[in-house]
Design brief:
alpha+beta; Ribosomal Protein S5, domain 2; Alpha-Beta Plaits; 2 domains; eight-stranded mixed beta sheet; 12 helices; globular
């Protein structure tokens, strides 16, 4: 659904649940990372894009003082949070993303009013498209609307990241919350994960589109492997004598090859080369050099598959099919995106060929794996927003 249709739908759901129209409607997008994978926790660069898939909330003041009620319209579950007490973890599990954000505002001294909330999300769950960050930033935006107290966008993103660390137990980087907060229509966001400096990268050319291909698989070993990769990178940085792999060069890596394990060498080689590819891809997109941008995407996938070892046969199948379609068929480049071991691929394609490419990838993927892929295209979307009711009923 478009954002307008989502807003209309959540308004109807709120009315059904609470018996009147909402006072506020807020939304925050998911994201796809165009390039820059596993560079965030190495203080590197990432190049995400907000996608046209959203977490959306409708809300009003609650009648019962001190109790915020959140209704998940998709799974028909309700969470009740006592906002007069220090907010802690609770059930249902998804409510911890919301609880963590509310606790963050409490810790800032913000008096949060009791609210009745209905929410839904069109961001695919478990596909590596940041459904959790979208929910966190949506919650933070609702608190801003309800309290009339806006906070600095970077502080808002960091507050949401802390919520994910402490309440969901996920040691995520900063990319997801930053792009959900700071995204702008027709732009990507080049983010320096060390300094938190951001740069908007225009992508307004209507002849190109990003295609997101959800493999609809998620291998369970992924969570443990993420922690291993972080530890391997930290070990490599220590041997190289740098604060993080952001500071290492190819020359340093080759010079220290004998002192690094084979695994540590390959992990470091991916990170060092991926940081460079991310910067080069941003430059290529600025000048609409789509073939160059696509070649960096293919190189990124090869590095993630061979050096970082976080791909899987399903992700590789999508990239192989995209390579087979090639530039002549409208595909500039394709790579896995997200943590790996399943989830999604992202392809840079010609807009005019989107339908044909979607059909070829869907058919080819089903033939190779026996699995139905979920595929959609997106232009760069705007970040979190408070929607005017006129937007809904216009």
């Amino acid at each position: 659904m478009t954002l307008k249709k989502l807003a209309t739908h959540i308004t109807i759901e709120f009315r059904k649940r609470y018996g009147h129209a909402p006072r506020w409607i807020v939304a925050a997008p998911g994201r796809v990372n165009v390039i820059g994978e596993h560079t965030d926790y190495n203080d590197g660069f990432v190049l995400p894009m907000a996608i046209e898939r959203y977490a959306i909330m409708a809300a009003d003041m609650a009648i019962v003082p001190g109790k915020t009620t959140i209704y998940d319209t998709q799974f028909k579950e309700t969470a009740t949070i006592d906002i007069f007490a220090p907010i802690t973890k609770g059930q249902p599990k998804w409510s911890n993303y919301i609880r963590g954000v509310l606790a963050g505002f409490q810790n800032r001294g913000v008096r949060i009013p009791a609210l009745n909330v209905a929410f839904l999300s069109s961001v695919p769950l478990g596909g590596g498209l940041s459904s959790s960050a979208a929910l966190e930033i949506c919650t933070a935006t609702l608190v801003e609307a309800a309290t009339h107290k806006q906070i600095d966008p970077i502080e808002k993103a960091l507050l949401a990241q802390k919520a994910e660390h402490e309440f969901a137990g996920v040691p995520c980087g900063i990319m997801d919350q930053f792009i959900s907060t700071l995204g702008r229509a027709a732009h990507l966001l080049l983010l320096d994960c060390r300094s938190h400096k951001t740069e908007l990268v225009p992508m307004s050319d209507p002849t190109v589109t990003l295609l997101i291909v959800n493999t609809n698989v998620k291998h369970e070993l992924g969570s443990g492997e993420y922690a291993k990769r972080r530890a391997e990178c930290e070990s490599a940085a220590k041997i190289l004598g740098v604060a993080s792999l952001r500071d290492a060069t190819k020359q340093q890596l080759e010079h220290a090859n004998g002192r690094l394990s084979i695994v540590a060498y390959h992990r470091a080689r991916h990170v060092i080369s991926e940081i460079a590819r991310t910067i080069h891809t941003a430059a290529a997109i600025r000048t609409s050099s789509w073939l160059s941008a696509g070649s960096y995407m293919y190189a990124s996938h090869a590095s993630l598959r061979n050096d970082y070892e976080v791909s899987c046969k399903e992700l590789d199948a999508v990239v192989e099919i995209a390579e087979g379609i090639s530039y002549e068929g409208g595909v500039y480049g394709c790579r896995m995106t997200g943590g790996g071991f399943g989830g999604c691929c992202v392809a840079l394609i010609k807009t005019a060929d989107a339908n044909a490419i979607t059909e070829k990838i869907a058919t080819g993927y089903k033939a190779k794996t026996g699995i139905e892929a979920s595929i959609f295209s997106s232009r760069p979307a705007a970040g979190a927003t408070i929607l005017n009711p006129k937007f809904i009923y216009a």
